[in-house]
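Supplementary Data S3. Sequence and structure tokens for construct A.
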Amino acid sequence: MSSTSYDAIVIGGGPAGLAGALWLARYRHSVHLFDAGDPRNAPTTGVHGYLGLQDIPPMELRRIGRAQARDAGAKTEEAVVESLDGEIGDFCIRLADGRAFGAKRVLFATGLRDIIPEIPGLTDFYGTSIWHCPDCDGPSIVGKKVGVIGWSRPIVAYCMQMLTWTDKLTILTHGHAAGMPARSVAALDRFAIPVRTQVVRGIDGQDGQVEGVTFIDGSHEEFDAIFFHIASGPGCSIPAALGCRADEEGILEIDAEFETTVPGIFAAGDITPGSKSALRAAADGARAAIGIYRSLLPKERKV
């Protein structure tokens, strides 16, 4: 058991966590970042729309971020955080390997996890021509024919966003009842978006490029790309166990300083309200670090 203690511990090593660690170190705080090493965007070929870095592979962005944070004075380590207890100014973080660390503040940047449809062939194209995030990959499908896997009202709202890039959309419910209210059905009719309810037997293509799907009845339809939107949830259950308030999807409630409803516990990135882009996550990680810095200012410096 280690008695090492830090001003702040960051849990999660994506853009939000790395930016948080970088900026905390710039403020001369002792900071240690732990990352499980299994990012949500690992399958994708590039992080799009990140200012100054053109379509950089996600693991390369992380490598650069770790180096930059370490150069500023932060420690980074691949490790799984198993539990956290304590209170503001005196938290104890325990790792899966049995080590323990103390921290005055904690920043969660643990992101979300997507439910991926269990369809034969899907993982062969995930990240190259099958995606889950329109904000990230919508610009890649301008004018193309796209299948959208999902059902019920949320998938209609998803398609309304997808219309930004293409009007050649087809909803694939993969055997699920469409379950759409009248208003959603009217929106689909307005934009001539068909719904196919057959089970998808498989996805075909070559060299990472989707070419179409085959349905359980033997019919086939060609597509240039596929998106899916089933559900997602928090990448880490610890904030909920601590009592951090969240919405029905597990998105944490934060204040203007990025502090959750549990004093001393901060959050940034996809686990907080807002768009789920890497650029926004990095910006929010820096803002959370500033919030932590302000919270650690001694009373005599607050005027």
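Construct B, processed identically:
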Amino acid sequence: MAALKIETAVPPEQSSVVLRAYRLQAGMTYTSLHDGLKAEGFVIYAGQGDLFETLFRISTMGNLTSADINRLLQCCARLR
């Protein structure tokens, strides 16, 4: 995500391994990102409460491979 200039909301050393929060880039809405990723088979989560406008969260649960992560990153790059 750092290579895509998508900032973490919490420093990685203080973040959960399973659930990470990222800042939405300028001009991007959670809804457009969510819908675009869902069309590719990924589900993300909004920031809670007022953070809906500025954050999205990704949970890395289940049997994920490096190919899954690479595909997610490619989709994020296309949707920016």
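The mean pLDDT is 94. Residues 12 and 61 are 17 Å apart (CA to CA).
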